[in-house]
Fold:
Amino acid sequence: MSLAAATSTKALALAGKGDLVGHVVGAFESETVAVFQRVAPAREHIILYVLIAILVISVGLSAVVKLDRAVTGTGLIVPTSGALYVSPFDTGIVRQLHVKAGDVVRKGQTLATLDPTFTEADLRQLQQKQASDEAAIARLKAELSGKPYRFSHDNSYQALQGSIWQKRRAEFESNLADFDSRIRGAEAQVSQYQADVREYTKRLGVADDLEKVYAPLAGKGYVTKLQMAQATDQRMEMNRLLEDAKNQTGNSVQSIASLKAQREAYIQKWHSDTAAELVTASNDLDVTRQNLQKARKLSDLVTCRRPPMPSCSRWARCPRGLSPAAAARKAPGTSHSSHWCRWMLRSRPTSRSPRKTSASSRSETRSS
Structure:
């Protein structure tokens, strides 16, 4: 009896839980739905319970755990210290790659060759300018020293400067000859005027003596007044001519001094202009030599060679960010912004010659 009662009580308890849900559902839904709800097993909604539990756990974890988030969008990155412009030292075109990964390279072996067109053009232009400046400086030094300019007709720059020297020398000598001829003409006039002064001085003395002789004779009536007047007029004329000759002599002497001063000033100005031109040409030659030295270094960078180091590793970076395989496959003529290659090397034991290296090659082509 008691066993039946216990079983009945347990069944009522289980049924009571279902009835409780059924009563709640029955209050809002039909009795049929309430019956289904009462007889439905508890595991029927286990998936819903699991999803609710996951949602609750996710919300809890998001509140206490820091997670990285990736944000995608467009924008402009501006550094706080201002824009930084990066450009290559010089541009070039890769004409040929002589090695590839896995090759054995030796000291001094050519690794890559760049297009030397622009570099060689700049180098030739600077060499020609240097030869022209040197010829001009040699010609200017010869002009300053007054020595003849020795040049070779086979050298076009020296021949050109030789032609300029000949023209300038002819102009200089022509101007000096003009000054000298004018000075000689003035000196001849001075000589003539001095001779006139001496002649007029003598004639003035004679006229003065004649007038003195006529003066007492005229008082006694032996000399007419006309003769006395003629003697006086002759003396006065000789005196005028003498003074005029003296004045002309003084003017000619001053003219000679002026011409000599002009001649000296012309020579000084010629030398001064030549010296200034020599200084300018020397400065230009110094600049040309510096630029030529840079051009030669750039020309040497056209051929990338393996430096004298023990061994090299792998390709680290290729022109314009290409991979080693892509760089090896890329046809000659590919443009990149580097004019020299730097090999990042590391020691590696080998039983062969210490100069040999394995070009599993770490060559870094750096934008200079």
Summary: The mean pLDDT is 75. The helical segments are 2-26, 31-39, 46-64, 117-145, 156-220, 225-300, 324-329. Strands lie at 92-97, 103-105, 110-114, 303-305, 334-336, 340-343, 357-359, 363-366. The longest strand covers residues 92-97.
